[in-house]
Amino acid sequence: MERTFKKKSFTEYDVVVIGAGHSGCEAALASAKNKSKTLIINISLDNVATMQHGNVLGGNVKGHLLREIDILGGEIGANTWRNAINVVKSENGNNEEINNYRFTVDKRRYSLFMKNVLESQENLDMRQGLVVEIKKIKDGFKIKTSDCMSYGCNAVVISPGSFLNGNIFWGKYRIEAGKQGEINSKRLQNSLEDLGFKFKKAFTFTTPGIDGKTINFNMMKRQKSVFRAIMSSNNVKFEGRLIKKSFITYIKNNDFGNILNSPRAGNEEIEKIFSDYLIKIHKRNNGLIILQPEGINTTGMYPENIPMAFSEKEQLKIIQNVRGLENASITRPGYGIEYSILEPLQTGINMKSPVYDGIFFAGIINGTYGYEESAAQGIIAGINASLYSKGLGLIDMKKEVGYTGILFSEISLGDKTTPIDIVDLKSMYNFKYDFFEVYKELYKILRFIGRKKEIENMERVYGKYPGL
Fold it and tell me: Mean pLDDT over residues 219-246, rounded?
């Protein structure tokens, strides 16, 4: 028997999703596609699925996550392909696998296209608002916003991103915000703590934006673009696209220590976290800095692999010590973000709280890092929230279900001392990717939730799996 409200009004829903970042968008779409009346609430509807940590998706391991989400009917892969302005194949990639391609997208167009997908989705409403309270009531939850609007629901997906008690900082400058130019959410954390949830601090860092007119690209190596590549989604058609160039450069004399020794804000805890974060990125990328175009209609460039939280004056010194950026201008400073995440063991492998039936968490609130990781959590949280609202059983994402399953296992058991990154988990679990086994598990999920369209598309692209 389905659990539903006796009456569906303007303010009553099966599922409410809090936050319209990469996890929130997937959660809302998955719930609505599962025929649950769904509402998504975001602080600003002009900032849906924004990208403050660069605009590149896919690549090592993350490409497989894109494909797994796409098979389940997610939107991140399709939106990536629609808005890709450059595609680069790994120099180590000898075969035609999604894992070998990195997709640079137009940041602004990506956000606008995702908003349009949400607006066009049947069973899905959008509201701009700041959620300040979640209250347990007899037959579900009551969601209250700062402007005194209330919404009832059977299930709620909480995906606030870096906005939950967020602060941003560079040098000695510090401001309450979830990202540059947007307010944070403080009262929501207080409400969740009243329900018994426990939180801890987490940190992440962004890189400065560079004015492309001030860059000497002749001193850099252009990355080879691939015009026809393995698509990030099999749910959209190839229509051709404009290609914008990306470039490889490096810090002169490999003077990495100059960054580590730059003046900080005097907070030893943040300095240690930042140093560890920077060293990890430096080692993973062999010291290379990749300049990515931010969009078709802008000269802005995003320098990958050189996050900063120093004063703007110090950031400019470091940037101008990079080959080709000797005369570069910073259009916006890089900054650090301090925000709240759940302490361990408060999210299960189905994204549901083990304490409160009907509360689901998705995204970096679970201690993860990356757009693809957030989207993977969002789609499963949205499906399960919908199933819960109908009184049906939930999907448990076990390790057998590809990298999505490994990610969920780590979320449910991990200590969260550092952000959970799927690239690190690949090495930790020594996982050998068997696509056909993953295919079988994803196929079972689609059969379980009755998604005929996705099953037909899966069989069209990959063929029928023997025995299913």
Answer: 76
